[in-house]
From TrEMBL:
Keywords: Carbohydrate metabolism, Lyase. GO terms for molecular function: 2-dehydro-3-deoxy-6-phosphogalactonate aldolase activity. It comes from the Bacteria. PANTHER family: 2-DEHYDRO-3-DEOXY-6-PHOSPHOGALACTONATE ALDOLASE-RELATED, 2-KETO-3-DEOXY-6-PHOSPHOGLUCONATE ALDOLASE. Its EC number is 4.1.2.21. Gene3D superfamilies: Aldolase class I. Pathway: Carbohydrate acid metabolism. Homotrimer. InterPro entries: Aldlse_KDPG_KHG (IPR000887), Aldolase_TIM (IPR013785), KDPG/KHG_AS_2 (IPR031338). It comes from Parasedimentitalea huanghaiensis. This is 2-dehydro-3-deoxy-6-phosphogalactonate aldolase.
Length: 201
């Protein structure tokens, strides 16, 4: 099954990137982002794409500039995630053949992102939107739109978010922090996948 879980590896370093990619894929998480405010992010993404680009969707997070989109396209990244809704970044991402997941919080931002061609909406910070806020937005969003809760979503409340209509999740410090070993990540990934499968069964 393809799980709508995006692993956010903020702070990951090149020497550990491929090993952590492997444990995520083995656990069943096949969407992986390296935020651009990590050390040498393009080097890590490039290595991960070469190592596992045929087994996972690998891309960047915290993408704020069109120039960054061009750099990501050149190294074979497959996904662009942003904390904000920038139509130019979304358009450039789609023109380059990558998936676009911009950050939104309001109806205005959500529809602006969709009009620009976004593949899904990253509700960030999700804990500020809340379950009732998501339910209200889902009433006006096209039913096929993929929605992701990022910030405040984890195994303990996946079922609540699913009940409110979310498609999936972006998980950051709940799955990786600088200093975590591949084994640490594997254990957290297993817990996250089990909770996701239970919530979306």
């Amino acid at each position: 099954m393809t799980r709508e879980i995006i692993a956010i590896l903020r702070g990951i370093q090149l020497h550990e990137a491929c090993a952590i990619t492997d444990v995520l894929i083995e656990a069943g998480i096949t969407k992986i982002e390296v935020p651009l405010n990590s050390p040498q992010p393009l080097d890590s993404i490039s290595a991960m794409v070469a190592h596992a680009g045929d087994r996972a969707i690998i891309g960047a997070g915290t993408v704020l500039q069109v120039d960054d989109v061009s750099k990501l396209a050149r190294i074979g990244a497959q996904m662009v995630v942003s904390p904000d809704c920038c139509a130019d970044v979304i358009s450039a991402t789609k023109s380059a053949g990558m998936l676009s997941y911009p950050g939104v919080l309001t109806p205005t931002e959500a529809f602006a992102a969709l009009r620009a061609g976004a593949d899904g909406l990253k509700f960030f910070p999700a804990f500020k939107l809340g379950l009732d806020g998501l339910s209200a937005l889902k009433a006006v969003l096209p039913p096929e739109v993929k929605t992701y809760a990022v910030g405040g979503a984890g195994p303990g409340n996946f079922a609540d978010w699913q009940g409110a209509g979310i498609t999936g999740f972006g998980i950051g410090t709940g799955i990786y922090k600088p200093g975590f070993s591949a084994q640490d990540v594997a254990a957290r990934a297993a817990e996250i996948v089990a909770a996701y499968d239970k919530a979306f069964a």
